[in-house]
Structures are given as structure tokens and as C-alpha cells.
Amino acid sequence: MKHTLILSALFCMPLRAQVVASGTVPDHATRDAIIQRLQTLYGAGAVTDRITVGPVLAPPGWHAQVQKLLGPGIRAVGKGELKVEGSAVSVRGEVASDAVRAQTGKELSAAMAPGYALRTELRVAQGQQMLDAVLAQRIIEFDSGQATLRPSGMAILDEMAAVILKLNGAKIDVSGHTDNVGQRMANIALSQARAQAVRDYLVGKGVNAASVAVSGLGPDRPVADNGSAEGRARNRRIEFRVAG
């Protein structure tokens, strides 16, 4: 029998992450290491352990290979499955955008050890594509240092509300982000307030309040180099993700 690890029901956003780990491994230490790694990635309450211990054959470096796969790249995969069966690795599921699909594929490929084969089937979530099309590289603007929307930001949110209403009750995560200028906790508070302001505006346009969750992540997830004015401007943003 081969080593087999299956991680299913992976969801993109940590607020709603649920991971079921199943399969067969040779000993309790291997199982415990896998579960501990998953709990670090997703949170202890989000991981269901259905891994069994039994007599299995493993290719060289199997344990290390699994640990390398359970990195940031896999967290971007939603509603899917990671399967490691012997030296065959497959990943399928949804990602937020074409850019995330390319980056996730790159990270997973880089994690592969010699002798292991990777197959990916990653698709961009349709609802997510609609949200991304609304933003289209635009930034929802606020007054400097405040959570007050500017008219240009309201105009984008008018379009966003219309799209969300077409998604038939889909759960949407709204996250606020900042650059790294100033104190981290102040930036987190500002990003939270801005995400809340976006939610309030969307609700005012008819979006169901229960379908929108908000989070403020401050400077912790930059998408560009904070060393330049252009990079800092890109990092000051609001993101929308279809969560379910």
C-alpha cells in the first residue's frame, strides 16, 4: 500500500477555512506532524483529522515532501483537494484570479522534490472573476488617514453592489490593507474601519449584511514593494473574495 494523504474542502479565506485530512500514513509521528502543520496554516478549529496509521510503503523523502507542499501556496486553493499518493501529487480547486493561479502553480512546482510528479487543475471562480472585473486595477479611495469614502470609491462600489446582488447570496469577504508607513496596530485598525465602511455602503445598496464579512489586515499582506511610492499605493487597497 502507498502512502496516501488527501486534504479536501480547502477554502481560500481563513475566516471560513475548513480542511479535512484523510488517508494512511506509517506512524503517529507523521500524522501528528501533518495535523500540526495544517493547524498552523488554517487554525486548530478548522482542521478535521481522519488520517489513519497503517502499514504503507513510502518513496524517499515523502514526509518532507508533504511538509513542503503544506505552505502558503496551498492556502490560496479553495473548494478543492490536495492528494499525495506515493510520489504522485495532484491539486485541484478554485483560486481567486488568473494571477493567483499562476503564482500558486509556481509555488507548488518549486516545492516538488526530484522523483515527484505534480498535476494541477486550478480554475478561477466565476463569481470571483466578476468581482475582479469590477475593480479592473482601480483602487477604492478614502480620505487620507480616514475611513471616509471618496466619490470615486463610491462609484466603484455602486458597480460592485450590482455584481454582488447577481451572485445570489454568495458569501463575500471584504479585507482592508495598508502600506507599512506608521504603526502596525494603527494601520490594522484603519484597514478594519475602511473594510467596515465598504460593507456599510454595500448594505446601503441592498446587499445582504449577513453575506459580507470584513477583516482589517493592515500591512501584513503586501502585493508590492513598500520601498516605492507606487508600491505603497498598490498596497493601500480593498480586496473582495467570494468565500462560498
UniProtKB/TrEMBL annotation:
| Listed SUPFAM superfamilies | OmpA-like
Instruction: Tell me which UniProt keywords the record has, alphabetically.
Output: Cell outer membrane, Membrane, Signal
Q: Hey, what's the signal peptide range on this chain?
A: 1-17
Which Gene Ontology cellular component terms are annotated? cell outer membrane
Q: What are the subcellular locations of this protein?
A: Cell outer membrane
Establish whether keyword Signal is in the entry.
yes
What is the protein name stated in its UniProt record? Answer: OmpA family protein
Biological source species: Pseudoduganella rivuli
Query: Species lineage, top-down?
Result: Bacteria, Pseudomonadati, Pseudomonadota, Betaproteobacteria, Burkholderiales
